[in-house]
Hints:
The chain is an all-beta fold. 0% of the residues lie in helices and 58% in strands.
Amino acid sequence: QVQLVESGGGLVQAGGSLRLSCAASGTIQVINTMSWYRQAPGKERELVAGITRGGITNYADSVKGRFTISRDNAKNTVYLQMNSLKPEDTAIYYCNAIVGQLVPRPYWGQGTQVTVSS
């Protein structure tokens, strides 16, 4: 089994910054893509950013230029640096990891709340 534990959420004013972390633990052979998703009240869960094991990144258009995803493969940890936060960034942020080589499986964290006040 694999566990993902997020941290770093909280309340911040518009224009501020937060850094989210997600650490994976358990029986891990290899972690492929790691991603951050978010879900705002009444909306579907959406991809925010993803990063491959080799460091290739992709971002939702709404966060490009403001958010930066990175990872530390030695620590099985992924980060999301969020700058210039806006009220519309308010959501529960979830970490996702695709784990395994022969049979890759997705795992999810429990989520961390990010609230941006105007």
